[in-house]
Each structure stands twice: as structure tokens, then as C-alpha cells.
Design goal:
With about 240 residues, the protein is mainly α.
């Protein structure tokens, strides 16, 4: 995001008319709500991320916007991008384990509910599946959905001003936290905070999705390794 609060250079402006209408965005947000409701009723298998990603793809196609326009683009230096992503992922993991999660556990009196991962410790086949899902559904899929599609879509309503991006950062990643409701109140708060950090990383790198994708993947990979070896706090 540049100093005027606009998308980085190369982001295509939306076409006029109905494609640029706030009503279209509101319809999309309503569909997001329906996807959440269906997931809450256990009508969605495994993950709602593919459904949200499909919605994002349809939205971009209708508005004649590309994934490249919102940050999924070729990087001038992949080595620098990977280094930034790895460093950010390690920092976020250390911050979560040493600062945010202990604070939230003390605040709520509850550990994150990781019962969905109870069969993972010591289970090599399940861990391998977990690593594949970390880098596809979580790192790649969630970053395209939450930081790429939804953050930009909320910012669209405010014409990409600094205030619009700030509201988008907080609002979208608060919902991202609630998307992890299966982890209980502590997990919701912690994941919401991690979402804000990933969103800030997206904005600070000029809306480059590759950096938060790598950071997200690295952080979740470390989490998965700790759970596999039975070393994750509260497991």
C-alpha cells in the first residue's frame, strides 16, 4: 500500500458500473456468511477455504480483476521473498508461543482446543497429510482468501484509503479468528491476532501475497512438528 493508501503500482482499477458497485460487495459478504453458516452446521466437508476461494475467483472474474492485481504476482527476487517469509514465520511462531498464547491462556484460563489434532502425535502418515494441507489449504488457500480477496474487497468499499485498509485489516482478521472457532475462545483470539500480523505483513510488503503465504506455511509447519513430537503447549 502506498502513502496515499492506494494499492501498489500494477493493481488494476475496477471497471465502472455494476462491477464497481458496493451492492455487489455486500452480496459477496452475504455469501461468505452463508458459507460460514453451512460450515457451522457441518454441511461443508473438511474446510470452507475451497468454497471461499471459489467465491473469490468468481468475484475477480466478474469484476475483471486478476489475482496478480491483488498481489499474487511474479517476484523480482524469490530469494528475498522467501527470506522475508521464513523470517516472518519464525518470528510469528516465537511471538505466539512465548508472548500472545501464554497471555491469552492466563486471560481466559483455557488452552487452545487442539482436540482435532489428538491423533497426530507420532503418526507419520497423518503428519504427512497435515504438512500437505498446511501448504495448500492453510498457507496458499487462506492467504489468497483472507489477505488477498477479502481484505481487498473490504478496502474496495472505502476506495482503498488508509482508513479503509485499517478497517479491512481489523475486520477481516477478526472474522479470520472466528473461522478457527473449533479451537475455543483462546484459539479464536490467538488466530485473530496472527491474522492481523499476516495482514500487516501483506500491506507492509506492498501487498505481496507470496510473503504471508510463506510466513503462514512456516509457522503452521513448526506448529505441526511440535504437535507431532508432543511438545506443543497444552497438548
Amino acid at each position: 500500500m502506498n502513502e496515499q493508501g492506494k494499492p501498489p503500482e500494477g493493481v488494476a482499477p475496477q471497471a465502472g458500473g455494476w462491477r464497481d458497485s458496493s451492492w455487489l460487495a455486500l452480496v459477496e459478504f452475504a455469501i461468505v456468511g452463508l458459507i460460514f453458516f453451512a460450515d457451522h452446521k457441518h454441511l461443508i466437508p473438511l474446510s470452507k477455504t475451497p468454497f471461499l476461494l471459489l467465491l473469490g475467483w468468481i468475484s475477480l472474474r466478474l469484476r475483471k480483476v486478476t489475482w496478480r492485481s491483488i498481489g499474487f504476482t511474479r517476484n523480482q527476487s524469490w530469494a528475498r521473498t522467501l527470506a522475508r517469509g521464513v523470517a516472518a514465520g519464525i518470528f510469528m511462531e516465537a511471538f505466539e508461543l512465548l508472548v500472545s498464547q501464554p497471555f491469552l491462556v492466563r486471560l481466559t484460563g483455557k488452552q487452545p482446543d487442539l482436540s482435532d489434532f489428538r491423533h497426530l502425535p507420532g503418526n507419520v502418515p497423518l503428519a504427512l497429510i497435515g504438512f500437505a494441507l498446511v501448504w495448500t489449504l492453510a498457507a496458499f488457500g487462506e492467504e489468497l482468501v483472507w489477505r488477498g480477496y477479502l481484505m481487498n474487497r473490504v478496502a474496495d468499499l472505502g476506495r482503498h484509503t488508509k482508513r479503509a485498509w485499517a478497517c479491512s485489516l481489523i475486520l477481516v482478521n477478526t472474522v479470520f479468528g472466528f473461522a478457527h472457532g473449533y479451537q475455543g475462545v483462546t484459539g479464536v483470539l490467538d488466530e485473530g491476532l496472527m491474522g492481523v500480523l499476516l495482514g500487516a505483513l501483506y500491506l507492509l510488503t506492498g501487498c505481496n501475497l507470496a510473503v504471508p503465504v510463506v510466513a503462514h506455511g512456516v509457522q503452521d509447519t513448526i506448529d505441526l512438528l511440535l504437535i507431532f513430537f508432543g511438545k506443543y503447549p497444552g497438548m
